[in-house]
Write the structure tokens for this entry.
Amino acid sequence: MKNLDSKSHVRGESVFLDDIAVVYGTLYACVFDSPVAHGRLKAINVADAENSKGVVRIITAKDLIGENQIGGIIPDEPLLAYGTVHFQGQPIAIVLAESEDLARKAAKKITAQIDPLPVVTDPRIAAANGDLIIPPKKFVLGSTAEAFKTCEHVFEGRTELNGQEHLYIETQGAYAVPAENGGLKIYSSTQGPTAVQRTVCRVTGLPMHHVEVDVQRLGGGFGGKEDQANAWAAICAVGVQLTKRPVKYALHRMEDMRMTGKRHPYSSDYKIGLDKDLKIVAYEATFYQNAGASADLSPPVLERTLFHCTNSYYIPNVTATAYSCRTNLPPNTAFRGFGGPQGMFVIESAIAHAAEKLKVKASEIQRKNLIADGDEFPYGQKAESDAITTWTQANAAYDFTRLQAEAHEFNGWSKYLRKGVAMMPVCFGISFTKTPMNHARSLVHVYTDGSVAVSTGAVEMGQGVNTKIAQVAAKVFGLPIERIKIQTTNTLRVANTSPTAASAAADLNGKATQAACEAIRSRLLKVAKTLVEAKTTAGITLRDGFVFKKNQNTGLAWQSLVMEAHLQRVCLSEHAHYATPDINFDWGTAKGNPFAYHVYGTAVVGVTVDCLRGRYEIDFVKCCHDFGSSMNTSVDNGQIEGGIVQGLGWMTMEEVFYDEDGKLRSNAFSTYKVPDIYSVPKEIAIEPLETKRKNNAILNSKAVGEPPLMYGIAACFAIRNAVKAFTDCSPCFDAPFTPEKVLMQLYPSA
Amino acid sequence: MIDFILNNETINTDLSAGMTVLDFVRYYKNLKGTKIGCREGDCGACTVLVGELKNDAVSYRTMTSCLMPLANARGKHIVTIEGVNPEDGSLTPVQQAMCDQSGTQCGFCTVGFVMSLTGFCIDDTVKMPQMAVSAIDGNICRCTGYKSIERAANEVCQQWAKGSRGFVPGYFSDIAGRLVKLKKAEDLQPSANGRMFISGGTDAYVQRPDDIPEIDATFLFYDEQLRGIRDLGKTIEVGASATVTDLLLSPVMQSAFPKMYEHLKLVSSTPIRNMATIGGNLINASPIGDMTIWFLALDAEVVFGHGRQIPLKQLYLDYKKLAKTDREFIKAIHFPKPAADFRFNFEKVCKRTYLDIATVNTAISLTVEGTPGKAWTPPALTTGDEFSTHEAWLADAFGEKGGPPSQQIEFTIKDCHLAAGGVAPIPLFLAETSAFLKGKTIDSATIEDANIIMQAEISPISDVRGSESYKRLLLRQLFRAHFVELFGIDSATE
């Protein structure tokens, strides 16, 4: 089953935000954003811009009718700066003009008088200044203080992990059109239509039932449009409110990169203690999260770093502390993995460090400490673990020892090239860690011609969620998938939704859809019972578009059944609700059962480093992945391949570069490099874990969006191993491991 | 007025010649299949096909419409996805392969891939998978991780081999005749009035996207007098509007530079190589211009439109300051035709090996004296698997796995031209290092001594592409790489 959108995608007929036909009279917005990372905003000079050709209106903070506030979790982020600017790229004024070009030209004429204040870009400095977004968070299991005393080996170190630009190919954007009675219809490229609705209502002062948000699809999201789509929709909404004309804003790439936050950089300290058998007995980690200038989603990202700070390992004594540090960078935000990868990188660094000192392979320590069934995570949940089974099956399929030996043999004769291999087990929890967010609704209509329309809160952004939801409906109704249409994600049809995030959209919205379809089916089966002269509905099934009785086709077509039901005044629509059962978490004790289930996997990554030039290639990524039981292998394998390459990019070439003034220097495609077709692994191999274990996923098909990204982390350690094979060194645990860092490590004395 | 054919429609427009083709198709023709991803030619989402009449047939190349002025569409056939889609709503073999292999996820970049692969399939040359991959080397996808797109590219090649055609609709067969009818040539002479000269547009539209549509510019890209690559006997002449692709396809260049494909593959991407001109690269004066470094090492001379001629190395005075008047544009460049004792190498390292701007690039040309007939020439690269192939060459050339060459052949340098980018405010001809190497025997000591001189000649700065100390180290390494690649001789450094 291919992605349902494939055909319209390849014909260029899929509609993205910038493709929506604009209404007559539409104005175009452009933002004037702060050229300074921190300072007192004394004055804004808009006179030249106001007189600029085609300009209809310029909006600053004082013009807003509602509240000048877009902070979702903590109200600490104004839509338009006033008093103080906190990062370069912070919106200060909105220009509305008759064309995009004229709006941009006018915005360039705005100036601001800003008295500079000290700029902080380093999270440790922010922490030392006491500038935290929220109080520190902590996970404790056992007692590390006591346990370290018993350890045979103890190692301490530090890691520096950079951020990552989402670089969805479709930039952020929104289009707001006035509706009756001061209402608004907003088209938005957002993962969170309800978040857009709430934010728009806050800045306009409108009640939520006056604001409709509609999302067809996204040209990529990756977390970047979970919270950070809100501002652009709010800007358009405010524009409509003040001009009574439609307002569109599709950001230019450089505006997008400059004004939006990225994956959080982290600076972290670790201390790891092992016994003589290489069992990890104690682990301490302190995370300094670079949150940027306001909270955005930093608090839950920070929490997930703690949730995944021990990755796939069982460690009986853990103390993990995390600080969300306020700096003068754009507010960092959700990005595939949501803090989890940052937690995992640190434990993997600690293990690599220990392995180096103890002169054993890191894989030996990794293997010995994998979490087993019933072992407790630092947050109290007991594992139903496939850590060992994925490792074992991957090893059986790919033979880690052979791969390591081949690299070693190659390194023995090659003059300039070195190969490195590293393993990466992954354990990732599925559910929003904030339990109240784990619910969803689905609205299903069966029309009298037998066609089916499904609306949910899930947003399609290439991950195939619509295809999976259509499969659910098709399965329950026994229909070919062509009879199912997944409608736009719209706040009028499905309200109060959680964002499409946390890999959970297919589970939550799929389960709600399943419930809605089953309710309709159950009503239809009662109608069918009479029509096919059955005593009960027990033996009646829907299959291939017909009603079957005891596995015999009765000849009663789906469409006839539907029409008959309608004539009998039976409801052909259903709005169903699903809430993930049996999950909870108590931040008072920092213990609970936050995840519906975990996804496990093990990958092995091989690289070749050209030690003359410092560049490298990824030879292979081979993994054994826990799909549960995949309901769509082409969609799921696509998520794995794409996630791996995104993770590899983060570990290798993707370098977010802010200078000391807080100015983003990697501000375009030309200076921020993501993998191209030549830089992907020569081979990606995916083995599905052979398992019969039941889980809480939709149709037993586990979430797949985020976990594979973390396989890419192994690339950093594989490169490190290759560099160490060329020259005696101990590279820092800093990512990305760019060609620059490689060459500087290879020739430290130069 | 600008006349061209857009898909199946003849266009006659008086819109600004400097407007991009991207804005024209999206906002004036409502053809929304062509997407805006970056507006700097780096993502490929806006890729279109540009068909040019050549000897009564139409030859198609891919270009990024975000950097292409409407002026450069004059007399051409511009094809967007809407002009590729079968009218009955079905799919072309390229589209079908992308669907079958799940080569599309969010769909935003997809059309760019479809256009690139369609351009690849449109002519009658044999289709190899690695060529299909190189056709999409300018398309960025953030969702798929490319493996599914690679599989689609393979499938396209298999379909092609099986005789499958229909990559474009039937109306394409009439395009050649229709283009003949469009008036051309006389409109294409460079008017001397324009305030700015624009050729391929690949840098101009990145630097000044908002200004150009309003500037009275002179468009040089399709000026016939500026095109062509000719063997003039002792020298080779390259027209200023020759593109990097023109170089790659030129038999003159191919015979002079056997490893040209491997080297120029490091330069931007297929659609940009189809647009970026040599003259543009030289005049842009970027300190890291790949082709500038290449031609500096060839001791090239530039010929201006009015006949003045100067050595290329004298063109650069300071950062983006040129030894030319505003009215002068480059007509052609000349360089000495390589002879049998000629050796040339190009090296480039950036964050991403391909489709990236150099952190440091360097080229060297050497005239060497060695034992006649025994001088080793590395075999041309034939596969995309560069690293492993490199080891294979060494094994081939020296008879042992990766070992150094036997030292019985001594090479003496009769002449040397060395250039490097990313290490100075200008694309740098390394005059002193070149002079030092002249007359020297190639050995470890020579390479090490030359590096000392070279390090004194350069003045790199720290920026987004790398720190100063990295750039110094990197140039040292790439300088070593020249001799490893050409002679299998290395310095003794570590």
